[in-house]
Design goal:
Pfam families: ROK. InterPro entries: ATPase_NBD (IPR043129), ROK (IPR000600), ROK_cs (IPR049874). Belongs to the ROK (NagC/XylR) family. It contains eleven helices and 13 strands. It is α/β, with parallel strands linked by helices. A five-stranded mixed sheet has the order 3-2-1-4-8, with helices on both faces. A five-stranded mixed sheet has the order 11-10-9-12-13, sandwiched between helices. It has a three-stranded antiparallel sheet with strand order 5-6-7.
């Protein structure tokens, strides 16, 4: 329920039953968008909405906006149902037990007792986890990882993040920070990463890294095809411009994708050798850069992974796209109960 008491809630949310009058709320909180959905107790989406986060307005304004989206999806699809739980993904390290969000640079938040705040606001049980973990859980429950007990999810976008599903459950590690694939060092003397260290996978293979390399080329008078894809403005060069130029056969753009693919393959080989997963799921916008990235990544993975681990692992694209985190929040609210129909 909202603080205004507008939404009906279930006073006994966990009873092992799947009644038709129960529903779940799910929120994927990002630095730019709040993506919220209502689902039935078997995970089928009933309503969804997306609004700007506008973190510059302050935390309380964002919390009010989250509450407004939950009210909106309830009014759209929750008639005759009681909300029994809210699952939420957040863009930063979080303690899943206490629900404390340690740091979210995109929001400007630090040490926020998010679970406590939201439970007071909504008067329902609230479960909070990192957005990459929930993207992994979403793919594991509803997407490319369905049925796989041990899988690794890696998202390659502005940055590189990851989530681990081990023995069918999210693996958090000792302090909730497991799965930080992007900060695995693959080139010790490599470029500086946003974390302050050098040679992280994120600094070599993320969309941001590809764009930075292309802007560097353009600034030196090279990369003309990439620059043309960006409308002639160096500051507008992004990974999409690199991919577009590579699609036209531009050698410099291809070199950027090949370099990112080699770094990504090296990082995945380390993950495969360490964890021996049955499945690696790759998501994120930068993975749409095309065959040069994928093929180079696969070649590097094959050359570096141990044969026994390589024989058992499959590497596949994510199936849920931008919905992976939201559907992971649904799965979190479901508490691991078997899903129903695939959400439409």
């Amino acid at each position: 329920m909202l603080s205004s008491g507008l939404l009906p809630v279930d006073p006994n949310p966990v009873d092992g039953v799947e009644p038709l009058n129960k529903c779940l709320a799910a929120v994927d909180l990002g630095g730019t968008k709040i993506y919220t959905a209502l689902a039935d107790s078997r995970g089928k989406l009933l309503a969804e909405t997306r609004v700007p986060t506008n973190p510059g307005e302050g935390m309380e304004a964002v919390i009010r906006r989250i509450a407004g989206t939950v009210e909106e999806v309830y009014n759209s699809g929750g008639a005759g149902r009681d909300i029994c739980c809210l699952g939420m993904g957040v863009p930063g390290p979080v303690d899943p037990e206490t629900g404390v969000l340690y740091q979210a640079p995109n929001l400007g938040w630090r040490d926020v007792h998010l679970k406590k705040i939201l439970q007071k606001r909504f008067a329902v049980p609230v479960l909070v986890d990192n957005d990459a973990n929930l993207a992994a859980l979403g793919e594991h429950t509803f997407g490319a990882g369905a049925g796989e007990r041990n899988m690794v999810y890696v998202t390659v976008s502005t940055g590189i993040g990851g989530g681990l599903i081990l023995d069918g459950k999210i693996y958090h590690g000792a302090s909730g920070g497991a799965g930080e694939v992007g900060h695995m060092v693959v080139e010790p003397m490599g470029p500086l990463c946003g974390c302050g260290k050098r040679g992280c996978l994120e600094a070599l293979a993320s969309g941001t890294a590809m764009a930075a390399r292309a802007r560097e080329m353009a600034g030196a008078g090279a990369g003309r095809a990439i620059l043309a894809e960006a409308g002639g403005r160096i500051e507008d060069i992004d990974a999409g411009a690199v991919a577009a130029a590579a699609g036209r056969g531009d050698e410099e753009a291809l070199e950027i994708l090949w370099g990112a693919g080699r770094a990504l393959g090296m990082g995945l080989a380390n993950v495969v050798n360490l964890l021996n997963p049955g499945l690696v799921v790759l998501g994120g916008g930068a993975m749409n850069a095309g065959k040069p990235l994928w093929e180079t990544m696969e070649e590097e993975l094959r050359s570096r992974a141990m044969p026994g681990a390589l024989e058992r692992v499959k590497v596949v694209p994510a199936a849920l796209g931008k919905r992976s985190g939201l559907l992971g929040a649904v799965a979190l609210a479901m508490g691991g109960r078997p899903p129903g129909d695939f959400p439409q």
